[in-house]
Amino acid sequence: MKRRYAAAGLGLIVLAVAAAAVPGAVLGSNGATPAGAADATGAHTISVTVWQAALIGLGYYLANSPWLFGLAFFTLYRPLVAGFLVGLILGDPAQGTLIGAAINIPYLGFISAGGNLPADAGFAGWVGTTVALASGLDATKAIPIAFGLGLLGTIIFYGRMAIDSIFAHWADARAEKADIAGVALMNWLPGQILLFVISFVPVFLFALNGPTYVQDALNRLPLWTVNGLVIAGGILPAIGIALNMRFIFRGAVIPYFFIGFILMTATHQSMSLVVVAAIGLALAYLHLNFVRRPAEPKTEAAKAEADAAAEASKSGPSTAGAEPAPAPAVRLTRGDLLRSWALWTFFAHANYNYERLQGTGFAHAMTPIIKRLYTTEDEIRAALKRHLVFFNTEPNFGNVVHGTVIAMEEQRANGAAIDDDAINSVKSGLMGPMAGIGDTLSQSTITPILLALGIGIAGGTASGSAVPAISGVTGNVLGPIIYTILVSLVIVTIGYTAWMQGYARGKSFVTEILKSGAIDRVLIGAGVLGNMVLGALAAKFVIVNLAPTVTIAGAQLNLQASVLDPLFPGLLPLGLVVLTWWLLRRRVSPLALLAVYLVVSILAAYPFFGPGQKDSNDFSYQACTSSLLHQYYPCGAPPVPPGPASPSPAPSAQP
Amino acid sequence: MSLRLVRIDDRLIHGQVVAVWLRALGAKRIVIVDDAFARDPFMSEVLTLAAPQGVPVEVHGVAEGAVRLIELARTSEPVMVLARSPRTILGLRQAGVPIEVVDLGGMGSGPGRRRLHKTISVSPDELRELRELEQLGTRVEVQIVADDRPIPFRSIDSGN
Q1: Helix spans in A398-440 (H)
Q2: CA torsion angle for A531, A533, A534, A536 (degrees, to 10)?
Q3: Do B19 and A443 touch (CB under 8 A)?
Q4: pLDDT, position A280
Q5: From CA A316, how far away is CA A322, in angstroms rounded?
Q6: What is the pLDDT of residue A651?
Q7: Is B14 a catalytic residue?
Q8: Which end of chain B has fewer CB within 10 Å, C or N?
Q9: How confident is the model at residue A25 (pLDDT cuts 50, 70, 90)?
């Protein structure tokens, strides 16, 4: 409870600071410099019309809704995809993609499990991109603002989780009347009306007024705070990357993270993420087949045991009917199974609530099965009530539970001695372990890796994402498109296979797949690929540039450009990421880290060492020699377009 | 004290546990105490296989579980203990397992159950058992995921 308010409160503070500081970017740069390079993009604003705001509100609603075959959570909800779509709506899809990609990085390690939401990535993506695009902010500045929005957005999720509990009781009342259609309706209609109101309205208002507010709240904050915001945009991604590292940066696959990082820095951030991923795939193959020690006990001795168990569990649901059953009276058709699967895939989370979590969704999915198998009112009522209880699993791999339960229902309807307890114990026993495996697969492995790939394709280079005007780099819309296609294919395939195999083979499928070691192979292979891509992403998006210079033998040398970078390019960002990972492992809260990093970033932009280079005609360059950290590129290195051309480490750019 | 976390969660091993808690605690072994599942070879097997590789899982009934946990509590191996109901934990406590804190991580709702906090609902019996645990000196807290701040049971138990 408290944490929730803390998150929302922190969100508000971040927003307030950002809103106050942002117009300074536009105003400050206009005022202070003739025509700063960053200013050229900074001044480009878009006014959001009522229709555009309505479309954006609708987009955010859809991102939380069941209507897109249950895939919205993996697609529209992700800032990468949201940014592209907001860009389409506002007429600049490339820039929208770039901003969305940047906003998405702190959410790479984003996981929602068991009705807990650390931050609303969807809100951050839809509103954050709108505000940034319409106010003419570049992608880096959008990161801290969107992060604040994401914390604020959790209010919508928790409000919905609380209120949706009521509708579960409405479904109970319909079940009491053996009203199959009524139960199905209660799972989606009231919940979706509520969701539409509480998601569409705030996003519509934010989209319509946010940018104007940001521009109008003429700020009196000095330029250095804006620089601080940009610095934060380079530092906050470390949190997202480290959050994700908690899951995959372990054991023998750790070195691949550094390989990915070094590949990227060695090519001056110019290597395509697709190439990194391809190298990662090759290394994953080698690792699985030649590096990894032949797996532990689970194989040999367990093999015979597995066969025995598979044999034994055949007496379970799938073949219980093989006992000379009195000629099967009712059989489920393939259509029933498909309808049930589709209903689940669409509506599993349509009425997600604290009391039952996916409980009403499960009952909704069972409606075609109940309709086929049971005829008397008593049977229907009992079946509906049986499936309206608390249920929660990972909605794709976890479908193995549904398949198994459907097979049990079918045998029960045909006279097998399966009581409520047997069905409940399979449901409640399997849903947890299957969620554990499913979440590990889909949420902590597959989605972040594909997202990292999509962001990498979308995002240009570090300097490019920060100063598109200098580098000429804008976002690549192929990033969100390729991500959406890949993630949809993988998720739907897992869900369908688990459902149908669960039905056909029941318990034996569960033990078999767990024993085969297939899941471990996938996870380890994904760990290799994931670490490579994550390392590359860290090199691309985590930016720490020291501003101070030292005078050695009469020459003014920048600490970073002349001392650290020649030694090990990207040493500071790498150090920051590993430190963040270590702190998270020590159970430091990510929210606390966010607050500290934000404050440190802004303070580090304060001109402790004097006024800086006022004579520079590039406003973003003025901080050199005056503050602790500097945005965009190391002082002393001229703003070169990214590419194979090495930025000259010589302090020649110093006037 | 090697019993790093003693958690009541009706889903036992699942996303929050595997993905977050295990790593946050650095636990190297999971002990599940559940009379019904200890007797069910299929569920014992699924639970054993569902944990990540390298983390052994044991499934025991309350009686053997208590003996095993007393033994484990003396070692330095970090252990995570999972159970589905307060009664199990009470049984362990009464059998002499040193449990300082018990974490309520997930207790689903149903007929006759009252919601205490988010996904934590209790039946009147469970409420009594939790209070009894507190009287025995075991702190009861709600902490759904590792990043949450623990909430003392006393502050959400309205007392009726």
Answers
A1: 399-413, 420-438
A2: 120
A3: yes
A4: 93
A5: 10
A6: 39
A7: yes
A8: C
A9: very low
Letter string b/e over residues B25-38, b meaning 16 or more CB atoms within 10 A of that residue's CB: eebebbbbbbbebb
Q: Which chain B residue is nearest to residue A311, measuring alpha carbons?
A: B42
The angle that helices A93-104 and A79-90 make with each other, rounded to 10 degrees, is: 160
B108:A389 CB<8 A: yes
* Cα–Cα distance measured from residue A490 to residue A497, given in angstroms and rounded to the nearest whole number: 11
Would you state the torsion angle of the CA atoms of residues A35, A40, A42, A45, taken in this order, to the nearest 10 degrees? 120
Q: What is the mean pLDDT of chain B?
A: 88
Please say whether the beta carbons of B26 and A584 come within 8 A. Answer: no
Nearest to A354 among B20, B40, B119 (CB): B119
Distances (CA, A) of A120 to A112, A225, A241, A380, B94: 10, 26, 17, 39, 43
The total of other beta-carbon atoms located within 10 Å of residue A178's CB is 20
HSE of A228, CA atoms in CB hemisphere, 13 A: 25
Q: Which two tokens stand for residue B15?
A: 């996303």
Provide the pLDDT for residue B79: 93
Average pLDDT of the residues in A133-161? 84
The β-bridge relationship of strands B139-142 and B151-152 is antiparallel
Beta pairing partners, A557? A550
Specify the higher pLDDT residue, A474 or A183: A183
Exposure on the CB side of residue A555, measured as CA atoms within 13 A = 11
Average pLDDT in chain A? 80
- DSSP label at A10? H
Amino acid identity, position A501: Q
For B10, the closest of A356, A428, A585 (CB atoms) is A428
Residue owning tokens 């940014």 = A83
Question: What would the mean pLDDT of A44-67 be, rounded to a whole number?
Answer: 92
Q: Give every CB contact of residue A306 below 8 A, 6+ residues apart in sequence.
A: A511, A512, A515, A516
ipTM of the complex: 0.78
| In chain A, % of residues over pLDDT 90 | 41
* Cβ contact B108–A354 (<8 Å): no
Among A77-81, A171-175, A237-241, A327-331, the range scoring the smallest mean pLDDT is A327-331
- The DSSP bridge pattern shows strands B29-33 and B57-60 to be parallel
pLDDT at residue A520, rounded to an integer: 83
What pLDDT score was predicted for residue B129?
95
Tell me the DSSP string of A40-58.
Answer: HHHT---PPPHHHHHHHHH
Contact A178, A370 (CB under 8 A): no
According to DSSP, the residues that pair with B6 across neighbouring strands are B81
Question: Which has more confidence, A498 or A640?
Answer: A498
- A383 vs A379: CA distance, rounded Å: 6
Question: Confidence class of residue B133 from pLDDT cuts 50, 70 and 90?
Answer: very high
Q: Please list the residues that pair with A545 across neighbouring strands.
A: A630
Burial A381-403 (b: 16+ CB within 10 A, else e): bbbbbbbbbbbbbbbbbbbbbbb
What span, in angstroms and rounded, lies between the C-alpha atoms of B12 and B83? 7
Length of chain B: 160
Chain B residues touching A510 at Cβ < 8 A: 46
**CA-CA distance, B29 to B81, in Å (whole number)?**
9
Q: What tens digit of pLDDT does each residue of B43-97 get?
A: 898 888 888 777 899 999 999 999 999 999 999 889 999 999 999 999 999 999 9
Phi, then psi, of B153 in degrees rounded to 5: -55, -40
Q: Indicate the DSSP class of residue A653.
A: G
Taking a C-beta distance cutoff of 8 angstroms, is the pair A593, A239 a contact? yes
Tell me the chain A residues in contact with residue B108 when contact means C-beta distances shorter than 8 Å: 356-357, 389-390, 392
More confident residue, A271 or A532: A532
- The whole-number pLDDT of residue A40 equals 36
Confidence of residue A625 (pLDDT cuts 50, 70, 90): low
